[in-house]
Amino acid sequence: MKRTNFDGILNISGGEYEELYIDGICNVSTDLKAQVLDLDGILNCSGSVDAQTLDCDGVANIKGNIRSEVMKVDGVINVGSKSKPTRIEADEIHCNGVISCTGVGEISADLVDAEGFIKASEIVGERVLIRSKRSILMRWLQDRFSKVDTIEATTIELHGVSAQTVNGQDIHIGPECIIERLDCSGKLYIDPAATVRSITGTYTRVQRPITKKTKARNTLNRWGSLSIMDALPLFLTERD
Q1: E strands along the chain, which residues?
Q2: For 66, what's the count of Cα atoms within 13 Å in the CB-facing half-sphere?
Q3: Structure confidence by residue, pLDDT tens digits, 113-154
């Protein structure tokens, strides 16, 4: 696979690449397509970006849409403009940085797994996990929460998210969430430190989430009266 490196400051009209690595500042006037797009610098693209693998550790300003199989964002991606709707479409999105959609921006992915910050009009997927943490970057952005108007998925887990509508089957609402409307058709957990103003649907309310700490505590309780030799087989079973 041919590798292309862009260093320094470069203006290009777009095009197709196999492996594209941007370490400087790259200004693209039309659409950009690559099998691998690795960004450690700054990308300003007036068109859309299509990359099988998109790894952003720098800053990307993209006016058009993004299509990718796997997106990894540890830097900042700004998508869209106020003049027209935009869309991010991927199989998997992993975000420890920032994804911000300007205007009407939709994110569609089988898996959205984020511990960073996401701002979008809508997120649609199979599994949506957003656990926003109070980082230096979020304080610099002057935002406490990820902000999404509508979230729709089969499985949803949210921490530190502000949303107008959340619709799913199994939903976990963690602390520091503010949800205006929630519709659930499966299991529902709401942390006492979360705010949910309206709940609809046929759901089963779960009072306590099953976490790794809970499982470990239950296991220790079962081991309490056992000798070391009796507990060893149980330990090996629990570990597997």
Answers
A1: 3-6, 9-12, 15-22, 25-28, 32-39, 42-45, 49-56, 59-62, 66-73, 76-79, 86-95, 98-101, 105-114, 117-131, 146-159, 161-173, 178-184, 187-190, 195-200, 204-205
A2: 33
A3: 999 999 999 999 999 999 987 654 555 455 668 999 999 999
Long-range Cβ pairs for the range 185-188 (8 Å, 24+)? none
- Determine the Cα–Cα distance for residues 227 and 146; give it in Å rounded to an integer: 48
Contacts of 166 (CB under 8 A, 6+ apart): 150, 151, 156, 158, 173, 179, 181, 182, 183
Residues 94 and 130: their CA atoms lie apart, in Å, by 10
Residue 88: how many other CB atoms lie within 10 Å: 27
Kindly give, in sequence order, each residue whose CB lies less than 8 Å from that of residue 47, ignoring residues fewer than 6 positions away: 14, 28, 29, 30, 31, 32, 63, 64
Do 107 and 122 form a contact (C-beta atoms < 8 A)?
yes
